Structure to design on (346 residues):
């Protein structure tokens, strides 16, 4: 019995869940309601707000929209690649090139990002396609964590920003590859891997697997299913990123930039908050190079693509909260240790 079939049977036997369309409507309604409430307060009772709130509100909206607009093309590309893998790629073609040993399969999948040059937003729908195709949860996690860092666009932009100075580029690439395989190995030992997936994703597997008709119809069905799954998360994640950026004082972060330990923590927090696409985050980090330690920059460049607020919201469409806590904790501990080592060696 295939992994995909097993997930489908789980979805069929699971208790009835609220439909994906209903959840999408609720999520979007909450976001719109929040915007309406804030706008109403600003228009009708502005005295309830501090004097600088209109400016900060405008900055927050601008930042949220920039994150959303920056992410949309990569999400669309990821959905298209997911459809190519799930619907158009003949059975066994991708699997035939994979090693038989589990650790070797994970090692190869963690390098798949070299030929799938999309940022973290597009990797989520692509990884969902791998899961639907029958790849294990741990194998898919390995690809998902590595691909935002181990891809040619990120390598080029990081080199353009830092070159080989202080080992930042090498530490980022090796760190991203290592933490991906570490997470893949940890979750390969989970006694019930499918329990790491949300009921909603298992229901999505059932919809896609049982969709009738030709490849064109199945492609359209999966395109709509994937967009309904990831778009609300992307909108909410972008809104959170914009809100947090205007609430967290940058001056407090800059004041501790020279401390070899606190600078790492500060840049990791900043990476989670700003939610910049991994294809261009190196140039953002470059603006802190004169103030922060090399290790803190490496920690920023490893943490951001994997567990920023936007990425966490997208991952939640597929993985349970408990699985996400494990992923985030592992990434943060690894990034801190990597940053500390770089500071000692630099």
């Amino acid at each position: 019995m295939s992994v995909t079939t097993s997930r489908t049977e789980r979805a069929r036997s699971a208790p009835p869940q609220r439909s994906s369309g209903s959840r999408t409507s609720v999520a979007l309604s909450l976001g719109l309601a929040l915007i309406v409430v804030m706008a109403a307060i600003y228009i009708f009772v502005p005295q309830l707000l501090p004097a600088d709130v209109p400016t900060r509100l405008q900055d927050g909206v601008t930042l949220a929209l920039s994150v959303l607009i920056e992410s949309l093309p990569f999400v669309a590309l990821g959905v298209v690649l997911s459809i190519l893998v799930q619907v158009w790629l003949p059975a066994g073609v991708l699997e035939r090139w994979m090693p038989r040993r589990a650790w070797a399969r994970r090692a190869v999948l963690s390098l798949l990002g070299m030929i799938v040059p999309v940022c973290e937003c597009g990797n989520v729908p692509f990884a969902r396609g791998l899961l639907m195709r029958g790849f294990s949860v741990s194998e898919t996690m390995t690809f998902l964590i590595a691909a935002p860092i181990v891809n040619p666009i990120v390598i080029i932009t990081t080199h353009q920003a830092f070159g080989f100075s202080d080992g930042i580029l090498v530490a980022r690439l090796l760190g991203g590859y290592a933490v991906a395989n570490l997470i893949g190995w940890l979750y390969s030992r989970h006694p019930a891997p499918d329990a790491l997936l949300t009921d909603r994703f298992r229901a999505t597997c059932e919809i896609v697997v049982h969709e009738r008709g030709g490849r064109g119809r199945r492609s359209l069905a999966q395109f709509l299913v994937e967009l309904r799954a990831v778009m609300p998360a992307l909108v909410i994640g972008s809104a959170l990123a914009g809100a947090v950026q205007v609430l967290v004082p940058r001056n407090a972060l800059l004041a501790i930039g020279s401390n070899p330990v606190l600078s790492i923590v500060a840049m990791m927090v900043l990476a989670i908050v700003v939610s910049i696409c991994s294809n261009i985050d190196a140039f953002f980090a470059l603006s802190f190079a004169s103030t922060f330690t090399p290790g803190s920059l490496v920690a920023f460049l490893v943490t951001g693509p994997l567990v920023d607020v936007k990425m966490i919201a997208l991952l939640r469409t597929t993985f349970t909260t408990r699985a996400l806590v494990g992923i985030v904790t592992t990434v943060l501990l690894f990034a801190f240790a990597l940053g500390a080592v770089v500071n000692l060696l630099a």
Q: What stands out?
A: Residues 1-21 have pLDDT under 50 and may be disordered. The chain is about 75% helix and 0% strand. The two ends are 52 Å apart (CA to CA).
